[in-house]
């Protein structure tokens, strides 16, 4: 019975923003405490004024719109500039400089390292601001791939090679690896149903797989292969990296804010990252997944 109630709560979570931006107009007018529940706060529900609650009818409370949105937009612009600058850097992580004397070069390198470290801390802080303070509705209207970039760019240690899986392995091989994942990983973290997993496998082999189906199956195969790997660089590890690289093209379509499926896709990536620290920062991804979960209200006990 408890499992059934938990499943119902996951399908219909009690939504609450992770940080209340401001009280709704009704509560501010009455000068009473507003709990920030969406789409309608508790005081408005009790007074049967659901239609007038700004949590449900407006994106932000009146008078608070521009200051908060402007802060988010300015930080987003800075993040995009940082990402563009990082892509222009050389393989050593520093922008090439003109030749200099040995002593001056050492001084410049030390100063550059300190500046880079400070710059990186500022970047992480900015992303933390967006993740913790913003809810899914705060990302409404942004480019579809912005949220995925905000997740993947700071969490990438070494860019994973993008690959294509032209020929699927045998059905028996895939089923064995999926069962290995169910027995060793899903048993500990049951955040996705077995029916959903095997449904994605079926869709993949029948030729009507959605991006979420490929993301699910390929990452599960990558997780299982990585767990079977005995050393970095062996055949199992190489296959795991190949499957993980094949799902990168779907990131902007599956890593979207404000949905339960996005959290499930994110948790699969977190599980893989714990087995491939060469390419991903698992702590960063786990923190981002936790913030997405709190934004949906899944941190609360089922009613």
Structural description of this entry:
The chain has 303 residues and is mostly helical. The protein contains 14 helices and no strands. Helix 5 packs antiparallel against helix 6. The longest helix has 32 residues, at 102-133. It is globular, with a radius of gyration of 23 Å. Mean pLDDT is 76; it is low at 15-19, 95-102 and 131-137.
Summed over residues and divided by their number, the pLDDT gives a mean of 76
* Number of strand segments: 0
The share of residues in extended strands comes to under 5%
Biggest sheet descriptor: none
**Global shape:** globular
> Over all CA atoms, what is the radius of gyration?
23 Å
Spans where pLDDT lies below 50 across 5 or more residues: 15-19, 95-102, 131-137
Oligomer: single chain
> Number of helix segments?
14
Helix content: 55-70%
Q: Which structural class fits the helix and strand makeup?
A: mainly alpha
Helix and strand sequence: HHHHHHHHHHHHHH
- Straight-line N-to-C gap: 13 Å
